[in-house]
Amino acid sequence: MCGIVAAAAKREVSEILLEGLRRLEYRGYDSAGIALVDNDKNLQLHKALGRVAELESAQRQRPLLGCLGIAHTRWATHGVPSAANAHPHTAGNRFAVVHNGIIENHAVLRSDLEGRGIVFLSQTDTEVIVHLIDQLRPTCSDLLATVQQVVKKLEGAYAIAVIDSDEPETLVVARDGSPLVIGLGIGEMFAGSDTLALRSVTDTFIYLEDGDIGCLKAGSYEVFDSTGATIEREVSQLEPPKKDDLLGSYDHYMLKEIHEQPQRLRDTIPPGKPPSALDFGASAAEVFSRTKAVQIIACGTSYHAGLVAKYWIEAFAKIPCSVEVASELRYREPVVVDGTLIVSISQSGETADTLAAINHLGGQGLARLAVCNVDHSAIVRASELVFLTQAGAEIGVASTKAFTTQLAALMALTDQLAGITNKNDYHGIFASAMASAPAAVTAVLALEPKIKAMANHFVAKHHALFLGRGVFYPIAMEGALKLKEISYIHAEAYPAGELKHGPLALVDSDMPVVAVAPNNALLEKLRSNLEEVRARGGELFVFADEASGFESGPGVHVLAMPHCDELAAPIAYTVALQLLSYYVAVARGTDVDKPRNLAKSVTVE
Ligand code: M6R
User: Fold this and answer.
1) 447: in domain
2) Which of 119, 121, 254, 319 has the most crowded Cβ, counting Cβ within 10 A?
3) What pLDDT digit, counting tens, does each position of 83-102 carry?
């Protein structure tokens, strides 16, 4: 999704901006641009369709120099991906703006500006902002005052960075509904849509709040709230970034991240130290003790982690648990009983729908717990309780290690809740499941060559069905999501028992059916469902416990999975499905780490 980098310094900033854009590439984008104010107070601009590499090549051919600049990666919402629609947008050969978010009243503003003779050069909602700045600047004392007036006219969500070639030392930034941080350097200031963009220049950040406007100069910064009053925002000092974020010898980040999972699980749940209530926050023990129900909200893969947790929480803690995609919950009036714990799950901590859903329920005085991979993120800051997964930076758009560490965290949450309602009857089984998960994943990774061979059967397919029962139904959903997002094969998941209620009509020799078949109480039920598939000529790919008795034969491909702890099995089977999707995508030649049309961090709704 769109990314912003901006800098005000006493040195050339073009390379800082380009490095920031490179660091934001993982978020997904279709075009990029950069604007600088040079020493002669001229506004200079490069925009390119495609990758940041195109911008770098433009910069090599015609270097832009300057100590004040803004840059952007765009993920199209309003208007096709094109150089004209790429940011920065400019007006009067003087002002330039980059923007994340959506200006909902852009059509009204645009038609008003066009009525006044303004000619628009793009189809974007963003361009209204820069023309409003151009129009209002003569009536305001400076750029800061102008932006303060302009944001009053905007409806929707925005994070913006603005420069004016007539004020070559001033960078103005503002946010409402889209994330934006200020990076504090020594004698230089930066802004970015996330901290990752700026980690090459600083580890010290201010997280702006909704309604904040920042005025940055090389040696100073000021923050103003929505009333225009100066405000002190907390300064956060982050740990220096880890060195293990590099691709190394792997072909793709996704493969690297799949292989990291044993260690990331150990980082999330350290061996021999199952989490206590305190690991969720100082007030967690008290909150858990009065929890009567759980409402989980999340999107995409994180939603699937929530669905798994529902099975666990209801089975072991014996309290009702609802799970809903955040984009639905945020626009309805759910009945949430007193004593409900709101649990949001998010890798990035910046997903706009999840954040909005938390805020939607937040007014009801309910406790909020974030299970999140990014400290200081918006979702973490919106929650009283936090459990940080330790997946590390996840670069591949397809979520892998974030999901399995979320499952580990949710196991720890279930353990805490069950400890209260069931007086710790289950503590031992969760502790051993959490301890066994890394080794179970290592054993699955050893099957990689076999899974790669299996993947070849999918290369020419257009559709696939994934089946699971019980807690493995959401695992099948996650397997289907992985396959569709990186291989572009249409895949759907069903609870296996639903097959004969409709989807069986789709089954023929062209429809591969992937079944998740651990050796649990539902195995025999699943076996019958798979017989129904075989009887219709469907080709089966069964991920089955080695002791389950499934055997390969004509039209049946069995991958014998190492036996593992029943509670850890959702994690282990997920890893096998991740490898299947990865190798199908590689065989089909897709852009595995940056699949088409998708963004890593979905900061607009
Ligand atoms: O950062 P989040 O966990 O909140 O993101 C939620 C989804 O956008 C994300 O899981 C998405 O579905 C992934 N591409 C799945 O691989």
Assistant:
1) yes
2) 254
3) 899 999 999 999 999 999 99
